[in-house]
Specification:
Number of helices: 7
Structural class: mainly alpha
CATH topology: Methane Monooxygenase Hydroxylase, Chain G, domain 1
Strand content: under 5%
Order of helices and strands: HHHHHHH
Radius of gyration: 19 Å
CATH architecture: Up-down Bundle
Number of domains: 1
CATH class: Mainly Alpha
Distance between the termini: 44 Å
CATH superfamily: Phosphate transport system protein phou homolog 2, domain 2
Largest sheet: none
Length: 217
């Protein structure tokens, strides 16, 4: 009876977690659209609804702690709860970074007088794909899929370096818009850090499936 109750509560927890993942993915997708379009209304929506993600993150953490306290799960059930607690925090931070992208694009467009020195479409698509892949790996408990994310991260780092060079080149040609250009470069840092969060999720998936602690260097 206790096991049935535990697994019922774990199923509820999984559903809450999947809903949070879908919400964070939606926010990130919209942030990627803003990078290309500068849509201020969409930016305001992301900023305004950030508290939804924060609220869900707290609910999931509280549910995890309740399950741990009441049922004291072991083995794979315990690993799942620990993984959800850690990934829950990663998802909340990804939501914060989506807000950061929205705010930074607003600042760039308010300053005016400078066009984007970097085309972020490839990097945005890559990072969004990494988040989707990491959540798919978690839901399907697929460690091989999780490991693929580490290779994707190397490409994201290379695109960040490319963005840096493009901004430096633009600064050499146009020092009058240094603040806007700096913000343009910092967008690549937001995207890179989201990629890093996807790697952190992948590490937790591998721990969940195989019981091995890995670190992507």
């Amino acid at each position: 009876m206790i096991n049935r109750t535990l697994h019922r509560e774990i199923d509820v927890l999984k559903k809450m977690f999947i809903d949070l993942g879908a919400l964070v993915e939606d926010r990130l997708r919209k942030a990627c659209i803003i990078l290309e379009t500068g849509d201020n209304d969409l930016a305001e929506e992301i900023i305004r609804t950030d508290n939804e993600i924060d609220h869900m993150e707290v609910q999931i953490e509280e549910e995890c702690l309740k399950v741990l306290a009441l049922h004291q799960p072991v083995a794979s059930d315990l690993r799942l709860i620990v993984a959800i607690i850690k990934i829950n925090n990663e998802l909340e931070r990804i939501g914060d970074m989506a807000v950061g992208i929205a705010k930074r694009v607003q600042v760039i467009h308010k300053k005016g007088g400078v066009s984007f020195a970097v085309d972020y479409r490839q990097m945005a698509v890559k990072v969004l794909g990494m988040i989707r892949m990491s959540l798919d790996a978690l839901v399907t408990e697929n460690a091989d899929l999780a490991r693929r994310i580490f290779h994707e991260d190397e490409e994201v780092d290379a695109l960040r370096d490319k963005a840096y060079k493009a901004v430096v080149k633009e600064l050499d040609a146009d020092t009058g818009h240094a603040a806007a250009l700096l913000n343009i470069y910092l967008l690549s840092r937001h995207l890179e850090r989201i990629g890093d969060r996807a790697c952190n999720i992948a590490e937790e998936v591998i721990y969940l499936v195989e019981g091995d602690i890995v670190r992507n260097e």
